[in-house]
Amino acid sequence: MIILSRNVTIPDAEIDITAIRAQGAGGQHVNKSSTAIHLRFDIRASSLPEFYQSRMLAASHHLITPEGIVIIKAQEYRSQDMNREAALKRLENLILELTVVEKVRRSTRPTLASKKRRLESKARKSSTKSLRGKVRSD
User: Fold this and answer.
1) What is the C-alpha separation between 61 and 54, in angstroms, rounded?
2) Which residues are in coiled coils (predicted)?
3) Which end of the chain has the smaller Cβ count within 10 Å, N or C?
4) What is the rounded distance in angstroms from the CA atom of residue 42 to the CA atom of residue 53?
5) 91, 46 in Cβ contact below 8 A?
């Protein structure tokens, strides 16, 4: 079971985990053991709240298919249990990342002191540049 918040959890029955053979170079034992994990999670058929489902389905993420299925392949570790934990953690992080609500930015006015500093620096630069003119000899 994945616990996302106090109110939102994902039961293990909704997550399809299968063990597959890992890719890449191996050695002894590599062609006999299935240590990689293939995780599938159907967003539409899950018990997630509507807000979570809509945010995840609207996201354009490489782990989510157009049909709304999250596919994660974990093969970083040599142990099947560690790969299972890594896949579940990646699913949890994906859901939390896609459902974060950004704070609304409210524009503020510049302070009086910052306006004065800006005008003083403009005046200083203006006087410096006005002194750069050609020198006349009378």
Assistant:
1) 13
2) none
3) C
4) 10
5) no
pLDDT of residue 14: 84
d(Cα 100, Cα 88) in Å, to the nearest integer?
19
Give the tens place of pLDDT for each residue, 121-133: 999 999 999 888 7
Closest CA to 91 of 17, 36, 20: 17
Q: Residues in the chain with pLDDT < 70?
A: 25-32, 138
Domains identified in the chain and CATH numbers: 2-98 (3.30.160.20)
Strand boundaries in the chain, DSSP class E:
2-3, 9-10, 15-20, 36-42, 69-74
- Report pTM: 0.69
Question: Beta-carbon neighbour count of residue 48 at 10 Å?
Answer: 21
Nearest to 64 by CA among 87, 37, 27, 91: 91
**Burial class of 42 by CB neighbour count within 10 A (0 to 12, 13 to 18, 19+):** middle
